[in-house]
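help with this:

***
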Amino acid sequence: MTAKNKNPIDAWLLAARPKTLPASVSPVIVGTAMAVADGRFAFFPALAALISALLLQIGVNLANDYFDHQKGIDTEERLGPIRVAQSGLIPPEQVKKAMIAVICGAVAVGLYLVYVGGWPIFVIGLAAVLSTLAYSGGPYPLASHGLGDLFVFIFFGPVAVCGTVYVQARQLSPSAIWLSLPVGFLITAIIVVNNLRDIATDRKTGKNTLAVRLGVRLTRLEYLLLVVVSFAITSGLFFSQAFSAWVLLPLVSLPLFVPSVRTVYTREGAVLNRALAKTASLTLFFCLLLSAGLLLSS
Protein backbone atom coordinates (compact mmCIF):
# COMPACT_ATOMS: atom_id res chain seq x y z
CA MET A 1 0.00 0.00 0.00
CA THR A 2 1.55 3.32 -1.05
CA ALA A 3 1.42 6.54 0.91
CA LYS A 4 -1.27 8.00 -1.32
CA ASN A 5 -3.77 5.17 -0.92
CA LYS A 6 -3.50 4.41 2.79
CA ASN A 7 -6.87 4.35 4.52
CA PRO A 8 -7.56 7.09 7.12
CA ILE A 9 -6.97 4.81 10.12
CA ASP A 10 -3.57 3.76 8.80
CA ALA A 11 -2.72 7.38 8.06
CA TRP A 12 -3.52 8.53 11.59
CA LEU A 13 -1.60 5.61 13.08
CA LEU A 14 1.32 6.68 10.93
CA ALA A 15 0.95 10.24 12.25
CA ALA A 16 0.96 9.00 15.87
CA ARG A 17 4.21 7.05 15.20
CA PRO A 18 3.53 4.09 17.50
CA LYS A 19 7.16 2.91 17.28
CA THR A 20 8.19 5.98 19.28
CA LEU A 21 5.76 5.33 22.13
CA PRO A 22 8.14 3.11 24.17
CA ALA A 23 9.93 6.39 24.89
CA SER A 24 6.91 7.65 26.84
CA VAL A 25 6.01 4.33 28.46
CA SER A 26 9.49 3.42 29.73
CA PRO A 27 9.99 6.17 32.34
CA VAL A 28 6.49 5.66 33.73
CA ILE A 29 7.19 1.95 34.16
CA VAL A 30 10.43 2.63 36.04
CA GLY A 31 8.86 5.35 38.20
CA THR A 32 5.93 3.11 39.07
CA ALA A 33 8.26 0.22 39.93
CA MET A 34 10.06 2.52 42.35
CA ALA A 35 6.76 3.48 43.96
CA VAL A 36 5.79 -0.19 44.30
CA ALA A 37 9.20 -1.07 45.77
CA ASP A 38 8.76 1.68 48.37
CA GLY A 39 5.25 0.50 49.23
CA ARG A 40 3.67 3.69 47.85
CA PHE A 41 2.02 2.47 44.64
CA ALA A 42 -1.16 4.36 43.71
CA PHE A 43 -3.09 2.93 40.77
CA PHE A 44 -4.95 5.97 39.46
CA PRO A 45 -2.02 8.42 39.61
CA ALA A 46 0.15 5.79 37.89
CA LEU A 47 -2.46 5.26 35.18
CA ALA A 48 -2.93 9.00 34.72
CA ALA A 49 0.84 9.48 34.42
CA LEU A 50 0.96 6.80 31.71
CA ILE A 51 -1.95 8.27 29.74
CA SER A 52 -0.56 11.79 30.01
CA ALA A 53 2.89 10.65 28.86
CA LEU A 54 1.43 8.82 25.86
CA LEU A 55 -0.71 11.79 24.85
CA LEU A 56 2.20 14.20 25.12
CA GLN A 57 4.37 11.87 23.01
CA ILE A 58 1.70 11.67 20.31
CA GLY A 59 1.23 15.44 20.60
CA VAL A 60 4.91 16.14 20.00
CA ASN A 61 4.88 13.71 17.05
CA LEU A 62 1.96 15.56 15.47
CA ALA A 63 3.57 18.93 16.23
CA ASN A 64 6.81 17.77 14.63
CA ASP A 65 4.92 16.58 11.55
CA TYR A 66 2.95 19.81 11.22
CA PHE A 67 5.66 22.37 12.02
CA ASP A 68 8.38 20.68 9.96
CA HIS A 69 6.00 20.69 6.99
CA GLN A 70 5.14 24.36 7.52
CA LYS A 71 8.81 25.31 7.74
CA GLY A 72 9.73 23.30 4.64
CA ILE A 73 12.02 20.97 6.61
CA ASP A 74 10.29 17.79 5.40
CA THR A 75 11.05 17.31 1.70
CA GLU A 76 10.93 14.53 -0.87
CA GLU A 77 14.53 13.70 0.11
CA ARG A 78 13.46 12.68 3.61
CA LEU A 79 14.92 9.30 4.66
CA GLY A 80 12.73 8.64 7.68
CA PRO A 81 9.21 7.24 7.90
CA ILE A 82 6.46 8.97 5.92
CA ARG A 83 5.27 12.29 7.32
CA VAL A 84 1.54 12.63 6.81
CA ALA A 85 1.43 16.38 6.21
CA GLN A 86 4.35 16.48 3.78
CA SER A 87 3.13 13.41 1.86
CA GLY A 88 -0.43 14.69 1.56
CA LEU A 89 -1.90 11.76 3.49
CA ILE A 90 -3.60 14.14 5.93
CA PRO A 91 -4.18 17.87 5.30
CA PRO A 92 -1.86 19.98 7.49
CA GLU A 93 -4.77 21.79 9.15
CA GLN A 94 -6.21 18.45 10.28
CA VAL A 95 -2.83 17.50 11.72
CA LYS A 96 -2.78 20.82 13.58
CA LYS A 97 -6.29 20.28 14.98
CA ALA A 98 -5.38 16.76 16.07
CA MET A 99 -2.23 18.09 17.75
CA ILE A 100 -4.27 20.64 19.72
CA ALA A 101 -6.89 18.04 20.67
CA VAL A 102 -4.29 15.55 21.89
CA ILE A 103 -2.42 18.16 23.92
CA CYS A 104 -5.72 19.32 25.45
CA GLY A 105 -6.38 15.69 26.39
CA ALA A 106 -2.98 15.51 28.08
CA VAL A 107 -3.75 18.74 29.96
CA ALA A 108 -7.12 17.35 31.11
CA VAL A 109 -5.44 14.25 32.54
CA GLY A 110 -2.71 16.46 33.95
CA LEU A 111 -5.24 18.42 35.99
CA TYR A 112 -5.95 15.26 37.97
CA LEU A 113 -2.21 14.81 38.52
CA VAL A 114 -1.97 18.41 39.72
CA TYR A 115 -4.81 17.70 42.16
CA VAL A 116 -2.87 14.69 43.44
CA GLY A 117 0.64 16.11 43.38
CA GLY A 118 0.17 19.83 43.92
CA TRP A 119 2.09 22.77 42.50
CA PRO A 120 5.31 20.86 41.59
CA ILE A 121 3.29 18.80 39.12
CA PHE A 122 1.65 21.97 37.77
CA VAL A 123 5.09 23.44 37.04
CA ILE A 124 6.31 20.20 35.45
CA GLY A 125 3.14 19.83 33.38
CA LEU A 126 3.26 23.41 32.12
CA ALA A 127 6.91 23.04 31.14
CA ALA A 128 6.15 19.73 29.38
CA VAL A 129 3.31 21.24 27.31
CA LEU A 130 5.37 24.29 26.34
CA SER A 131 8.31 22.06 25.38
CA THR A 132 6.00 19.85 23.30
CA LEU A 133 5.07 22.88 21.20
CA ALA A 134 8.52 24.47 21.24
CA TYR A 135 10.37 21.32 20.16
CA SER A 136 9.59 21.98 16.48
CA GLY A 137 7.39 25.09 16.57
CA GLY A 138 7.48 28.66 17.76
CA PRO A 139 10.01 31.40 17.08
CA TYR A 140 12.91 29.35 18.44
CA PRO A 141 12.37 25.64 17.70
CA LEU A 142 14.47 23.66 20.14
CA ALA A 143 15.26 20.84 17.71
CA SER A 144 16.46 23.29 15.07
CA HIS A 145 18.89 24.96 17.46
CA GLY A 146 20.70 21.92 18.79
CA LEU A 147 18.69 21.70 22.02
CA GLY A 148 16.46 18.75 21.16
CA ASP A 149 18.72 16.13 22.74
CA LEU A 150 18.95 18.05 26.02
CA PHE A 151 15.20 18.55 26.32
CA VAL A 152 14.47 14.92 25.42
CA PHE A 153 16.84 13.82 28.19
CA ILE A 154 15.34 16.18 30.77
CA PHE A 155 11.68 15.44 30.09
CA PHE A 156 11.92 11.73 29.31
CA GLY A 157 14.45 11.05 32.05
CA PRO A 158 14.42 12.97 35.35
CA VAL A 159 11.09 14.74 34.82
CA ALA A 160 9.11 11.69 33.68
CA VAL A 161 10.59 9.17 36.12
CA CYS A 162 10.66 11.46 39.16
CA GLY A 163 7.25 12.92 38.30
CA THR A 164 5.75 9.43 38.18
CA VAL A 165 7.27 8.60 41.55
CA TYR A 166 6.13 11.87 43.08
CA VAL A 167 2.45 11.66 42.12
CA GLN A 168 2.32 8.29 43.88
CA ALA A 169 4.70 8.71 46.82
CA ARG A 170 4.49 12.50 47.29
CA GLN A 171 8.23 12.50 47.93
CA LEU A 172 11.49 11.86 46.10
CA SER A 173 14.68 10.10 47.07
CA PRO A 174 18.16 10.46 45.55
CA SER A 175 17.65 6.94 44.18
CA ALA A 176 14.82 8.16 41.95
CA ILE A 177 17.06 10.81 40.44
CA TRP A 178 19.91 8.39 39.84
CA LEU A 179 17.65 5.79 38.25
CA SER A 180 16.10 8.39 35.97
CA LEU A 181 19.45 9.10 34.33
CA PRO A 182 19.94 5.85 32.35
CA VAL A 183 16.30 6.04 31.25
CA GLY A 184 16.83 9.56 29.94
CA PHE A 185 20.14 8.70 28.29
CA LEU A 186 18.75 5.72 26.38
CA ILE A 187 15.67 7.62 25.22
CA THR A 188 17.97 10.42 24.05
CA ALA A 189 19.90 7.79 22.09
CA ILE A 190 16.74 7.18 20.07
CA ILE A 191 16.59 10.79 18.90
CA VAL A 192 20.34 10.72 18.23
CA VAL A 193 19.86 7.92 15.68
CA ASN A 194 17.00 9.86 14.11
CA ASN A 195 19.12 12.99 13.77
CA LEU A 196 22.19 11.08 12.59
CA ARG A 197 20.11 9.65 9.74
CA ASP A 198 18.88 13.12 8.78
CA ILE A 199 22.13 15.11 8.99
CA ALA A 200 22.38 15.72 5.25
CA THR A 201 18.74 16.65 4.68
CA ASP A 202 18.48 18.71 7.88
CA ARG A 203 21.58 20.68 6.94
CA LYS A 204 20.02 21.54 3.56
CA THR A 205 16.84 22.88 5.14
CA GLY A 206 18.57 24.80 7.94
CA LYS A 207 17.48 22.51 10.76
CA ASN A 208 20.60 22.68 12.91
CA THR A 209 20.11 19.73 15.22
CA LEU A 210 22.92 18.78 17.58
CA ALA A 211 23.85 16.06 15.07
CA VAL A 212 24.24 18.67 12.31
CA ARG A 213 26.42 20.74 14.61
CA LEU A 214 28.56 17.82 15.78
CA GLY A 215 28.87 15.97 12.48
CA VAL A 216 28.67 12.23 11.82
CA ARG A 217 31.71 11.10 13.83
CA LEU A 218 30.86 12.92 17.05
CA THR A 219 27.16 12.04 16.79
CA ARG A 220 28.10 8.37 16.60
CA LEU A 221 30.28 8.87 19.66
CA GLU A 222 27.37 10.57 21.44
CA TYR A 223 25.19 7.52 20.78
CA LEU A 224 27.86 5.14 22.09
CA LEU A 225 28.42 7.20 25.23
CA LEU A 226 24.70 7.42 25.99
CA VAL A 227 24.40 3.62 25.86
CA VAL A 228 27.61 2.89 27.76
CA VAL A 229 26.94 5.44 30.52
CA SER A 230 23.42 4.07 31.01
CA PHE A 231 24.77 0.62 31.82
CA ALA A 232 27.63 2.09 33.86
CA ILE A 233 25.19 3.97 36.11
CA THR A 234 23.17 0.87 36.95
CA SER A 235 26.39 -1.00 37.71
CA GLY A 236 27.64 1.91 39.81
CA LEU A 237 24.47 1.91 41.89
CA PHE A 238 25.13 -1.72 42.83
CA PHE A 239 28.80 -1.21 43.65
CA SER A 240 27.92 1.84 45.74
CA GLN A 241 25.74 -0.55 47.78
CA ALA A 242 22.68 1.62 47.13
CA PHE A 243 20.84 -1.37 45.65
CA SER A 244 21.02 -5.14 45.68
CA ALA A 245 22.45 -7.20 42.83
CA TRP A 246 19.03 -7.22 41.16
CA VAL A 247 19.70 -3.70 39.89
CA LEU A 248 22.24 -5.32 37.54
CA LEU A 249 19.42 -7.09 35.71
CA PRO A 250 19.46 -4.54 32.81
CA LEU A 251 22.94 -5.83 31.91
CA VAL A 252 21.10 -8.74 30.30
CA SER A 253 20.11 -6.35 27.51
CA LEU A 254 23.66 -5.08 26.88
CA PRO A 255 24.57 -7.68 24.21
CA LEU A 256 21.36 -6.81 22.38
CA PHE A 257 22.49 -3.20 22.02
CA VAL A 258 25.73 -4.23 20.28
CA PRO A 259 24.17 -4.76 16.81
CA SER A 260 22.51 -1.33 17.04
CA VAL A 261 25.80 0.32 17.97
CA ARG A 262 27.49 -1.49 15.09
CA THR A 263 24.81 -0.29 12.65
CA VAL A 264 25.10 3.30 13.88
CA TYR A 265 28.87 3.19 13.44
CA THR A 266 28.97 1.52 10.03
CA ARG A 267 25.83 2.51 8.14
CA GLU A 268 24.20 5.69 6.89
CA GLY A 269 20.87 6.77 5.42
CA ALA A 270 17.54 4.98 5.56
CA VAL A 271 19.04 1.77 6.98
CA LEU A 272 19.35 3.65 10.28
CA ASN A 273 15.56 3.44 10.59
CA ARG A 274 16.08 -0.14 11.75
CA ALA A 275 18.63 0.96 14.36
CA LEU A 276 16.19 3.63 15.54
CA ALA A 277 13.34 1.15 16.02
CA LYS A 278 15.70 -1.34 17.62
CA THR A 279 17.03 1.24 20.06
CA ALA A 280 13.47 2.16 21.06
CA SER A 281 12.47 -1.46 21.70
CA LEU A 282 15.70 -2.23 23.56
CA THR A 283 15.23 0.85 25.72
CA LEU A 284 11.82 -0.48 26.74
CA PHE A 285 13.40 -3.88 27.47
CA PHE A 286 16.13 -2.22 29.57
CA CYS A 287 13.48 -0.34 31.57
CA LEU A 288 11.41 -3.47 32.09
CA LEU A 289 14.48 -5.28 33.41
CA LEU A 290 15.35 -2.32 35.63
CA SER A 291 11.81 -2.26 36.97
CA ALA A 292 11.89 -6.00 37.62
CA GLY A 293 15.18 -5.57 39.46
CA LEU A 294 13.66 -2.88 41.68
CA LEU A 295 10.68 -5.07 42.50
CA LEU A 296 12.84 -8.09 43.25
CA SER A 297 15.07 -5.96 45.46
CA SER A 298 12.08 -4.95 47.55
About this structure: The mean pLDDT is 91.
